[in-house]
Design brief:
Layout lengths: L4 H12 L3 H23 L13 H11 L9 H18 L6 E5 L4 E5 L5 E6 L3 E5 L9 E6 L9 H20 L6 E6 L7 H7 L9 E7 L6 E6 L2 H8 L10 H7 L9 H6 L5 E7 L18 H19 L12 E6 L2 E6 H23 L3 H7 L2 H28 L8 H26 L7 H30 L5 H23 L11 H7 L24 H23 L1 H19 L11 H14 L3 H7 L2 H20 L9 E10 L5 E6 L4 H6 L3 H5 L3 E2 L3 E4 L12 E7 L3 E8 L3 E15 L2 E13 L7 E6 L4 E9 L8 H8 L5 E5 L5 E9 L1
Parallel strand pairs: 3-19, 5-6, 5-7, 7-9, 12-22, 12-23
Antiparallel strand pairs: 1-4, 2-3, 4-6, 8-9, 10-11, 12-13, 13-15, 14-15, 16-17, 17-20, 18-19, 18-20, 18-21, 21-23
Helix pairs in contact: 2-18, 3-5, 4-5, 5-10, 7-10, 11-15, 11-16, 13-14, 13-20, 14-20, 14-21, 14-22, 15-16, 15-21, 16-18, 16-19, 19-20
């Protein structure tokens, strides 16, 4: 006999939701399917066919040449890379395309003072500019930028070889396809040295009318390129439009704004030039512990990473070029986020206004509706229930805090190599704590097992109150600091509001009449069933929270089934949204970008705290269900798993060959007394352990303080006897100082402020205490005309960054004695700092 659709659905529901176990299986399966959909998006890279007109293989060959050797601004290899780019670009101009102009910018010099007003900077730029004239000259130009210098200690394959290779291939494309509006491409030099290449472009004539820009960077090594900063929602749309492989996070913008990320990119220069320019900052961000090291090379990246950078740059630039609007700067800030595999974006003022409205309106609406359900309101305001919930939260907090403190006390740098393990451990920590504490809360609420759905509803409302407190704080912070990254709190709170409304719908529309009054006194109070001697609220009969069928013995299974179905509906409304929002934030942004940065500054467990807090908020909405979904046996098994993970976490090595310890170094050499000292950042206890294998450290009595370990190592080697030559022509209060060095970077420091009249024939006429100078050529003299009124102690320091010419053998010696689980990097501009001192009278 044929079964009707309704009967079939009822039969499926009866099988699927007949017990807490089957409901749990359904809920976890639902989450797993959502995870697979999200994971499939993360794992996808653009194929070659998604880049029509672009030659990925040719770009890869460009990358091979660019990243052959380290090529910092202050090196001869930098000039080799520069010549290569010019050789590749000049044929584009010579191909009889009248709209293509290649500019070898050897003329832009900039002079400016730093924020302290006592330091002067002089810099000679040598950027390479390409100007593609657009078909519509009325629209303002777009800028595409990448820097072709690397750090002294790395080959710069990701930072920023991939950006340069992608930009070079885009130049070839637009040489064949004239853009709609002007496109200016800037291959800038000296980004790694205080962003001076971008500053030089900002002083160039072509920069004056730029309305939007795309900056390609490498703040990590390999993986995908992420949009982590955007100036306004209009240029953000250009990134997402027709982009099938986006990767973006608004957290990056807020982290830069709040100085959580202390380094900077050319983005900050371009955005502030000429009263504001709108732009996109697209960068690699993973594998930070090989960033700026010798492992930033071709062997640690894959062509698919280059394809993703090329794809993101091409889509963004092409969409900006096709924009019909003349000016793209006059738009509001963006807010964008990932949700279930799709990116959503809003204008920040709209998001801000919506948040303010919600923080005021939502509690008013919920409270006004709740008062129409006096029995539920009575249960929610019971001190016993509230105390159980608060104690549960306190227990979870203490358990989380204890786990973090114990882990960071015993193995503080574990997250460097095992961020996945730490994430799993913290999620499991919260799962166990929530299961134990909420089961205890339900037990002490004196509910029988058949009434667990009642406490489930009460707990849902308590979770909503918790989220409201967090939401209120986030709105205040968002308004005060203009933060967009609080979106996950807003959406998570809305999910709890929707679930609370769903509980009211159930109570109001889907209940049976209570006919059987054979309940205990406790159950009468819970269910809202008045006894014969029980007073009611005013003249209105008390509305039962959950009505029970008349014949409990025959309809118990049916009631259980309905309770389970409603629990699953609550689960779907309240759990997945915060779970996946927090998961994406934590495992796609925070841990990949931050797990390998603990050695960049004095140790702090803030990252561990942030990780476990986000894990808590991703799991807390499962609290009302978890004590039903997980039996005591299941909780015991999870506890054993948690202990296993914790023990493993305590004894795993925090550094390995894939995730090495990055040690920042530099060397000083005083020409006056011949002293030369090599400094290595002190990461206790690892630095001292490593240096014990260095013969110079052990033989010369190396010492460590809180910041650095220092020792006398191999003496620097120069082609000339004196690497810094200076000449003084002194008159009455007038001093002409000329400096020559085998370096493009020199700094002059005075013990007292002096009047600087001219610097390399540039009129200054102002008082300064320090002068930092960078120029295009080696051994080219610096000339300073100074006025002094008293004897002035002067120190000249010139920086050296070329590790390929034998000038800095101490660094080579340091690398030779490193174990496989550690790497070297520069501490700052100037891997070797050579100084000489004298007094001007």
């Amino acid at each position: 006999m044929a079964i009707s659709k309704k009967a079939l659905v009822e039969r499926i529901c009866a099988k699927t939701f007949k017990s807490s176990l089957t409901c749990s299986i359904f809920g976890f399966t639902f989450l797993f399917i959502l995870y697979l959909l999200d994971w499939s998006r993360i794992a996808r890279f653009p194929p070659t066919k998604s880049l029509p007109g672009l030659d990925v293989e040719r770009a890869w060959n460009d990358l091979k040449f660019i990243s052959l050797l380290p090529h910092p601004y202050n090196s001869k290899q930098n000039e080799v890379v520069r010549d290569y780019l010019l050789d590749e670009l000049r044929p584009l101009e010579e191909s009889n395309q009248p709209y293509v102009t290649v500019i070898d910018d050897l003329y832009t010099n900039i002079t400016f003072e730093l924020d302290n007003k006592s330091d002067l900077v002089y810099f000679e730029g040598n950027n390479i500019l390409i100007h593609f004239q657009g078909k519509n000259r009325q629209r303002l130009p777009i800028l595409l930028s990448a820097h072709y210098d690397s750090v002294s200690t790395g080959k710069g394959t990701t930072d920023d070889g991939m950006g340069v290779a992608a930009t070079l291939e885009l130049c070839r494309y637009y040489a064949k396809h004239q853009p709609e509006r002007d496109l200016i491409v800037n291959f800038n030099n000296a980004e790694e040295d205080y962003l001076y290449g971008a500053r030089a472009f900002a002083a160039h004539e072509l920069s004056k009318n730029v309305t939007a820009f795309v900056n390609l960077e490498g703040a990590g090594s390999g993986g995908k390129a992420m949009l982590f900063r955007s100036s306004n929602h209009y240029v953000t749309k250009a990134y997402f439009r027709k982009n099938k492989y986006p990767l973006a996070s608004i957290l990056g913008s807020d982290f830069f704004k709040r100085r959580i990320i202390r380094s900077e990119t050319d983005y900050i220069v371009y955005e502030n030039m000429h009263n504001g320019t709108a732009g996109l900052d697209i960068a690699f961000y993973e594998n930070r512990n090989i960033y700026h090291t010798a492992k930033d090379d071709l062997s640690h990246v894959m062509p698919k990473s280059l394809r993703h950078m090329m794809y993101s740059a091409f889509r963004s630039v092409n969409n900006l070029l096709d924009e019909p609007r003349k000016d793209l700067t006059k738009f509001s800030k963006p807010t964008f986020f990932l949700l279930f595999g799709k990116y959503w974006q809003f204008k920040y003022p709209l998001y801000q206004m919506t948040s303010v409205v919600l923080v005021v309106v939502c509690p008013i609406i919920l409270l006004s509706i709740l008062l129409r359900f006096p029995s539920l309101y009575t249960q929610i305001k019971k001190k016993r229930y509230m105390a159980c919930f608060l104690l549960s939260c306190v227990f979870v907090f203490v358990f989380d805090a204890g786990t973090v403190l114990f882990l960071t006390w015993y193995n503080p740098y574990l997250i460097n190599a095992h961020s996945g393990l730490v994430s799993a451990l913290f999620y499991l920590t919260n799962l166990i704590a929530l299961a134990f504490s909420f089961r205890t809360a339900a037990t002490h609420s004196k509910l029988s097992s058949e009434d667990l759905s009642c406490i489930e509803i009460v707990l849902i409302w308590y979770v909503q109150m918790l989220w409201y407190a967090v939401f209120f704080i986030s709105v205040v912070l968002s308004l005060h600091y203009e933060l967009s990254s609080t979106y996950w709190v807003t959406l998570s709170y809305l999910s709890t509001v929707c679930c609370c409304i769903l509980t009211l719908i159930r109570i109001h529309y889907f209940v049976d009449n209570v006919e059987d009054m054979n309940f205990t006194r406790e159950e009468r109070s819970l269910l809202g069933v008045p006894s014969s001697n029980q007073s009611q609220y005013g003249s209105v009969p008390q509305q039962p929270l959950i009505h029970r069928p008349s014949n409990l013995s025959t309809k118990k299974a049916h009631a259980k089934l309905k309770d389970n179905i409603w629990s699953v509906l609550y689960f779907i409304f309240i759990v997945p949204l915060p779970l996946f929002l927090c998961y994406d934030i934590l495992n796609e942004v925070i841990l990949p970008a931050g797990s390998q940065t603990l050695t960049d500054a004095p140790f702090s467990n803030k990252l561990y705290k942030l990780t476990i807090i986000i894990a808590f908020f991703s799991m807390v909405n499962s609290g009302p269900f978890i004590f039903r979904a997980l039996s005591k046996k299941s909780t015991a098994v999870l506890t054993m798993l948690w202990i296993t993970l914790l023990v493993q976490a305590l004894f795993l090595d925090p550094f390995d060959e894939t995730h090495p310890l990055k040690l920042a170094t530099f060397q000083t050499y005083n020409l006056n007394n011949g002293n030369h000292t090599f400094y290595v950042k002190n990461i206790t206890p690892f630095t001292d352990q490593i240096l014990q294998f260095n013969p110079y450290y052990t033989a010369n009595g190396g010492q460590c303080d809180d910041t650095y370990c220092s020792f006398e190592s191999v003496k620097p080697s120069f082609e000339v006897n004196n690497p810094i030559v200076y000449e003084l022509n002194q008159g009455k209060h007038q001093v002409d100082l000329t400096i020559r060095a085998e370096s493009k970077w020199c700094t002059v420091n005075f013990n007292e402020s002096v009047f600087v009249e001219d610097l390399n024939e540039n009129r200054i006429s102002k008082v300064y205490k320090s002068i930092r100078m960078g120029q295009r050529e080696f051994l080219k003299p610096y000339t300073l005309n100074l006025t002094i009124t008293e004897p002035t102690a002067t120190e000249i320091t010139c920086s050296y960054d070329d590790i390929t010419d034998g000038t800095i053998p101490a660094y080579e010696n340091f690398l030779q004695h490193l174990p496989a689980w550690s790497v070297g990097t520069k501490a700052s501009t100037g891997l070797l700092k050579v100084s000489t001192s004298f007094t001007m009278t």
